[in-house]
Amino acid sequence: MAKKGNLLSFRPDIKVLDATIRDGGLVNNFDFSDEFVKELYKTNIKAGVEYMEFGYRADKDIFNEEEFGKWKFATDDDIYKIVGDSDMVKTAIMADVGRCNYKRDIHPKNESPVDLIRVAAYIHQIPAAIEMIEDFFNKGYETTCNIMAVSTAQLADIKAALEMLGQSPVNGIYIVDSYGSMYPEQISPLTETYVEVAEKYGKYIGMHAHNNQQLAFANTIESCAHGASYLDGTYAGMGRGAGNCSIELLLSFLKNPKYNIYPVLKFLEDYMVPLQKNPDVQWGYNVPYMITGHLNQHPRTAIAATKDNRTDYTNFYNELMDRD
Fold first, then answer.
1. Is this structure's pTM higher than 0.90?
2. Domain definitions of the chain by residue range
3. pLDDT tens digits for 268-286?
4. Of 8, 145, 168, 175, which is the most exposed, with the fewest CB atoms less than 10 Å away?
5. Which fold has domain 15-276?
6. At residue 8, does pLDDT exceed 70?
């Protein structure tokens, strides 16, 4: 399959989604101030970012509200307080299969400020994800299915899941390198597999990358080159563990004249730099994250090692090898 454009191409199908509050919330327990979220929303408007993800719509029967900031639950009322009547940036939330009481907590689109609901599912949860997608479609929402930890799935299973999703009312399907273990050489053919189904059924393809091997940006633009059109980024790469594709890198790369990097730099300067100085809020590449990415393992062990300031990398590596 031919690449979609080149370094100088402008592709009007490309959309950027800011996942700072949702993926970054996994770093600070979703404890963002209203000021931070409002300024981020204003910055995305000025920068030309198309979507902003406000957090999870988590089930309060499963998660204790007292243990998390409010963006773990991202209620319609809390989102309204940020966006008001503005529709200059589309709003998104994430609903995890098995962790969202969607029939109770997600109301019809005409009663909500949310535009896009991103259903997160592992490959074996696709039937449950489609049930959620159908419910959200009937309520009037745009939807995506974000297939998590795709690096651990068999290609035959991926193709079967894509065919099922293609026949569903989902609008878009996301490649998610949850463990930051993939390389551009793997992303290219995988994206083409997704795009083949997308073109068959009239869907779009998205890319959500993690930075365990410092490849989140490279994998995002590689996926874009092969047809992905919805691209996730976060400010200063803030996200679980090693973090995500930095939105400042992504907007600098894309050739759409609507994107403006200056307000992004201003937000980084005013809000992200102070946040990075907080010793209780840690994200970004380090050796333990590299090791879990290299071994294609969940980063929970590296997160724990980072919190403990471990630098006994050989011991850590041997511990993970023994798990296999």
1. yes
2. 15-276, 287-323
3. 999 999 999 999 999 999 9
4. 8
5. TIM Barrel (3.20.20)
6. no
